[in-house]
Amino acid sequence: MYTRFLSGPFGLQPKENMTFTFTDLDSAGQAAQVFSAHQCWLEAVGGASAAAYVDCTSPVALPADTKDGSYHFHARVAGANGAAGTEALSTFEVDSVPPEVSIAEPPGAPSSPMLRSNATSVAFNSSEEGVSFYCGLSRSDPGAPAPAAPDASAYYWCTSPAALTNLTDGNYMFAVYAVDGVGNQGKPATSTFLVDITPPAFSDINVPTATAQPEITVAFTATDSG
């Protein structure tokens, strides 16, 4: 008699839905009578070596406070005379830590956060390997307060370096976050910059009429301040 898992965490696993279900098979691999007496053991890899089986019944939900790390989960039929059946074994790793993102080269680097171009790029990296990056960009008009962080719907899958094109004059916030292989989502890293590609225009130019003075004063206004 041996036990087989029907569902449960396998491989890399987030800290959710950690429930095992199992059934029993006979020596020919056919479904056998489901025994009410089973024994289970959640073994922390690298922990105590002595087996610590406890009575259990399918389904078995693992404790919500299970710590990050590698585990073996054992399940077997408990024999009436003390002889246990062949156990089922699952090896998995719990990972609840979200990846962190840092911006290595912000927009406009290494010059300045003010861009005189309608295109730039941003380089970034993550504290974990094998993650997926998602980028977002928000904007406010020139002279307006800095923009808020991008809406959730504004994020898109991206890679580093991310190219930002078709920019117009204004204030921008670039944000990027990472999602690891089990779905842990980190907080966005952000960088703000200003795009100014429109040259100033002059108007109301007031040139004095002909004069014999060696110096004259010309008055005018410009569309850009500073």
Write structural notes for this entry.
By secondary structure, the protein is an all-beta fold. It has 2 domains: 2-94, Immunoglobulin-like (Sandwich); 101-195, Sandwich (Immunoglobulin-like), CATH 2.60.40.10. It is 0% helix and 44% strand. It has a 5-stranded mixed beta sheet, with no helix packed on it. The chain has a 5-stranded mixed beta sheet with strand order 10-16-15-12-13, with no helix packed on it. Strands 1-3-6 form a 3-stranded antiparallel beta sheet, with no helix packed on it. It is rod-shaped and about 120 Å long. The model has no long low-confidence stretch (mean pLDDT 84).
Précis, in short:
With 226 residues, the chain is mainly beta. 0% of the residues lie in helices and 44% in strands.
Mean pLDDT: 84
Which shape, going by the Cα principal axes? rod-shaped
Q: CATH H level of the largest domain: which superfamily?
A: Immunoglobulins
- How do the SSEs run, as a string of H and E? EEEEEEEEEEEEEEEEEE
Number of strands: 18
Q: Please, how many helices?
A: 0
- The percentage of residues in β strands lies in 35-45%
Largest sheet: 5 strands, mixed
In the CATH hierarchy, the third-tier topology of the largest domain is known as Immunoglobulin-like
- Unreliable stretches (pLDDT < 50, length at least 5) are none
Biggest sheet strand order reads 2-8-7-4-5
Radius of gyration: 32 Å
Give the number of domains. Answer: 2
Helix content: under 10%
- The CATH architecture term of the largest domain is Sandwich
Structural classification: mainly beta
Text of the CATH class of the largest domain: Mainly Beta
Distance between the termini: 84 Å
InterPro entries: Ig-like_fold (IPR013783)
Protein name: Bacterial Ig-like domain-containing protein
Organism: Chlorella variabilis
